[in-house]
Write a sequence for this structure.
């Protein structure tokens, strides 16, 4: 079955960096676009970044120039490098893949940006 497992969240000071990873299994990773979403307390889940199978990327305006999504099709992993973090980046971050099964989500990883 499709599984997504995120790791790498934590507490960081404003201006700091974190790197999130998502390990995928149960589907042909190399042919699927992969997404990172986030959900802050009291807010709707929002799309942060997307990467196509070939590596083309798109970002939410709020993270452009600070976040970088990448993938390793040999290792079935997708990462989100987050730099210049701001308090408003605080959220639970989710890895996502969409296919014939619908939407699949990881368990989420908490990112807290605070001094």
């Amino acid at each position: 079955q499709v599984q997504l497992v995120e790791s790498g969240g934590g507490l960081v000071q404003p201006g700091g960096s974190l790197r999130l990873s998502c390990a995928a299994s149960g589907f042909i990773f190399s042919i699927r676009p992969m997404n990172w979403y986030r959900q802050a307390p009291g807010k709707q889940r929002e799309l942060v970044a997307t990467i196509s199978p070939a590596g083309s990327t798109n970002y939410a305006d709020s993270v452009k120039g600070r976040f970088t999504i990448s993938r390793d099709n040999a290792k079935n992993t997708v990462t989100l490098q987050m730099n210049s973090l701001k308090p408003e980046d605080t959220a639970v971050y989710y890895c996502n893949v969409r296919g014939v099964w619908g939407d699949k989500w990881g368990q989420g990883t908490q990112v807290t940006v605070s001094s």
